[in-house]
Amino acid sequence: MSSQDESWFDDAAGPLIRPYTVTGGRTRTDTFGLDLLTLVVAMTSSAEAAQLPPEYARVVRLCQQPLSVAEVAAYLELPLPVVKVLLSDLIEQRHIIFRSSQPVTAAPDERILQAVLDGIRKL
Amino acid sequence: MASGNSDTPRPGNPHRRNLSATTLKLLIAGGFGVGKTTMVGSVSEVPPLHTEEALTAASASVDDLTGVERKTTTTVALDFGRITINPELILYLFGTPGQDRFWFMWDELAVGALGAVVLADTRRLESCFPALDFFERRGLPFVVGVNCFDHAHRYGTEEVRSALEVDPQVPVLLCDARDKESTKQVLTTLIQHVMRTSRDLART
């Protein structure tokens, strides 16, 4: 662990606003079971997003087209737990809608697998 | 299929906001530095994306990377890519974290995955053992891709198969993770293996 008398400067100190500051320190309010592949899309336009707090506005502007939760985290350069909290808040406020990825128990459908196979061959 | 509040679209929202696409994922596993992200990048339609799952401070004390132990938080890096098969079908390729101690992340990644590629480096085959063990235990179909580094001694696939002690039905093939056609061959072999495995399961 870090010694108490050590000082960090510049880059070593990290971003001035720590990631969890934007979520008010919350990490576990994910009530919607969002996972890496949950698709999300904004129901609020980029223009309307200007009324939201900056971090929320960034999410809404990014999600004008459907994206997975993993992609949202990657493009915003924020850790996944933080992004899940931001998205959960936006879902509650109806700025964002979501759709879960396939249920865990679902066996892969032969037609879907064939489509994946054909798709990869065509790359 | 769980849904959000998608029953109340606001008027004027264009069709592109529909969320009917199916998302699928494949995992690319193997030891640190074996070429997982390179393989993802060789077929992804976007440059490999990067995200992080934050770990608690407690795990930092067991971090064996010199110079990192002073960090109060550490993160598990995830690299992934995307292939839009068609507007209704999106395939994501996730590289698994290289270090074994991130098992909790492997669990989340493996849930709902179609299958996995275990990338092996013949110079240190043992680095892919944890991945093999993990997928065998979970019953997730996988293929072994032997990444042929430029200066590495080329072994035959049967030599690698016997060294890894994988089941005879598990495909083992040589590949070059930098090469798109080679990665496509690995992925099509994997999907065919997944199809065979699910047909076999349906029969029993």
Q: Which terms summarize this structure?
A:
heterodimer; A: 123 residues; mainly alpha; 3-stranded antiparallel beta sheet; 8% strand; B: 204 residues; 7-stranded mixed beta sheet; 7 strands; globular; disordered N terminus
Quick description:
The complex is a heterodimer of chains A (123) and B (204). In chain A, 37% of the residues lie in helices and 8% in strands.
Describe, in plain words, how this protein is organized in 3D.
- The complex is a heterodimer of chains A (123) and B (204).
- Chain A has helices spanning 46-49, 54-62, 69-76, 80-92, 110-121; strands at 39-42, 67-68, 96-99.
- With 123 residues, chain A is mainly alpha-helical.
- Chain A has one domain.
- In chain A, strands 2-1-3 form a 3-stranded antiparallel β-sheet.
- In chain A, helix 3 (69-76) packs across helix 4 (80-92).
- Chain B has one domain (20-203): Rossmann fold, CATH 3.40.50.300.
- A 7-stranded mixed β-sheet of chain B has the order 2-3-4-1-5-6-7, sandwiched between helices.
- The radius of gyration of chain B is 19 Å and the shape is globular.
- Residues 1-15, 57-64 and 66-72 of chain B have low confidence and may be disordered.
